[in-house]
Specification:
6 helices, about 0% strand, elongated
């Protein structure tokens, strides 16, 4: 499960001044994840040698991308780990 994602639409809403009202003030600029961050999570979940399958606890479970990043040790493309 990703956090707040910096999609083109979300960035456009931020620039248009509609982001705060639409989201209740979520911090897209400082806490937003790129779509690549979620992609990296998928890649790590596919790698059965890194412990990610044990972390998620099997199929049918919900996992937060940022928590997996901390467990496995990957970062977003800008070097941050939301």
């Amino acid at each position: 499960y990703p956090g707040v994602v910096r999609t083109e639409g979300n960035i456009q809403a931020l620039r248009a001044g509609t982001w705060e009202e639409a989201t209740g003030g979520m911090d897209l600029e400082n806490n937003g994840e790129t779509v690549r961050f979620s992609g990296r999570a998928v890649v790590h979940l596919m790698d059965s040698t890194n412990g990610s399958l044990e972390w998620i606890g099997g199929s049918g479970k919900v996992g937060v991308v940022a928590e997996l990043a901390k467990f496995v040790g990957f970062e977003d493309e800008d070097g941050r780990r939301p």
